[in-house]
């Protein structure tokens, strides 16, 4: 995440992020530049600079306009907030800054990779009375340290892990199950567990 050329650099923390659909993402970012330069403009983009054009400012993109907020400053902080993320937001994000001097421009080439996941309950194909069954709240990337909430017919259960273990299942376990991440409003689609 650190790229430094003669005092020019951008550092992202972390370098890649896994976010739950509908959540808010904070991309931590700091930047450096040599003494004698002052920042004229700083912005984020999903495109890199080319020899013929500047990348577009994310805050002016209609898809992001009302959801993105620059939390940084014109000194060293370039933190970005992106709320209500969707699968379409899954891409690389790059920070760009321009100074008042013609040769004083910089954009990191690595960027930050954002992955966006939904939640899905994974169940065994067949469940027979007396089986021990594990339901899993599946994601497409690894969320950082979440606590999960499980629901049976819309009522929350006491389990707070990614896996819900049901011991010696009976017809009482036949129900609709869904999962969510604690503190987030988005939950998985409900899955019906049939017990034979």
UniProtKB/TrEMBL annotation:
Pfam families referenced in this protein's UniProt entry, alphabetically: Ig_2
SUPFAM superfamilies xrefs: Immunoglobulin
Domain Ig-like, residue spans: 112-196
Protein name: Ig-like domain-containing protein
Organism of this sequence: Electrophorus electricus (Electric eel)
Taxonomic lineage from the root: Eukaryota, Metazoa, Chordata, Craniata, Vertebrata
């Amino acid at each position: 995440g650190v790229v430094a050329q003669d005092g020019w650099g951008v550092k992202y923390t972390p370098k890649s992020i896994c976010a739950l659909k509908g959540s808010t993402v904070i991309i931590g970012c700091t930047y450096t530049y040599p003494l004698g330069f002052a920042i004229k403009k700083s912005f984020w983009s999903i495109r890199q600079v080319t020899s013929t054009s500047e990348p577009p400012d994310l805050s002016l993109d209609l898809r992001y306009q009302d959801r993105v907020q620059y939390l940084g400053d014109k000194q060293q902080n370039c933190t970005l907030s992106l709320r209500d993320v969707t699968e379409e937001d899954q891409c690389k994000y790059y920070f760009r800054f321009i100074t008042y001097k013609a040769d004083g421009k910089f954009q990191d080439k690595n960027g930050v990779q954002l992955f966006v996941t939904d939640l899905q309950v994974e169940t065994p194909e067949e469940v027979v009375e007396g089986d021990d069954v594990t339901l899993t709240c599946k994601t497409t990337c690894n969320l950082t340290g979440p606590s999960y909430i499980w629901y049976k017919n819309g009522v929350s259960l006491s389990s707070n892990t990614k896996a819900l273990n049901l011991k010696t299942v009976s017809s009482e376990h036949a129900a609709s199950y869904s999962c969510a991440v604690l503190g987030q409003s988005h939950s998985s689609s409900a899955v019906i567990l049939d017990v034979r």
